Amino acid sequence: MTEARVGLPSSWAEVCVLKPRLRQQAKEAGYLSEWRTLAAAAESGADTLEAWRELCARIAEHGSWYGTYAIRDDAEDEDPVYRCPSARRCERRTVPDRPGEVPVCHLSGAPMTGSAHGG
Ligand SMILES: [Zn+2]
């Protein structure tokens, strides 16, 4: 009885969302140095999506994968929607957990930009 469906990230948005969790999982699986390399590469704008997928696959083989993660894109119209500052690459969108809270892009470490003003 194996539940082997592993949701590897297929976009930068997913890597962005998963990155903090991936760090913990990579640490547990012994791939922390790989994670660090990829994290630094991502911050410098390198196109390493495939490498992230490989790292996730290796973590998954280790059995510590938490499963799929659905990117929240069901924002209500009246909610301010934030986009990642590196929107060319990371298409993640999110709404703040609490009003006034600015979410952070985990890829770049920069605050996400609001589009509430029609930008
Ligand atoms: Zn991002």
Question: Would you write up a description of this structure?
Answer:
By secondary structure, the protein is mainly alpha-helical. It contains 3 helices and 3 strands, in the order H-H-H-E-E-E. The chain has helices spanning 12-29, 32-43, 49-62, and strands spanning 82-83, 93-94, 113-114. Helix 1 (12-29) packs antiparallel against helix 2 and helix 1 (12-29) packs across helix 3 (49-62). The longest helix is centred in the first third of the chain and has 18 residues, at 12-29. The structure holds zinc ion.
A few lines on this structure:
The protein has 119 residues and is mainly alpha-helical.
Rough shape?
elongated
Strand arrangement across the biggest beta sheet:
2-1-3
| Percentage of residues assigned to helices | 25-40%
Low-confidence stretches: 1-5
How is the main sheet built?
3 strands, antiparallel
Protein structure class:
mainly alpha
How much is the average pLDDT? Answer: 79
| Rounded Rg | 15 Å
Distance between the first and last residues' Cα? 49 Å
- Portion in beta strands: 5-15%
User: What kind of assembly state do the chains in view correspond to?
Assistant: single chain
How many strands in all?
A: 3
Write the layout of secondary structure elements.
Layout: H1 12-29, H2 32-43, H3 49-62, E1 82-83, E2 93-94, E3 113-114
Antiparallel strand pairs: 1-2, 1-3
Helix pairs in contact: 1-2, 1-3
The structure holds zinc ion.
The site of zinc ion (ZN) has 6 residues, from loops.
Task: Provide the descriptors you would attach to this structure in a database record.
disordered N terminus; 3 helices; binds zinc ion; 3 strands; about 120 residues; about 5% strand; mainly alpha; 3-stranded antiparallel beta sheet; about 35% helix
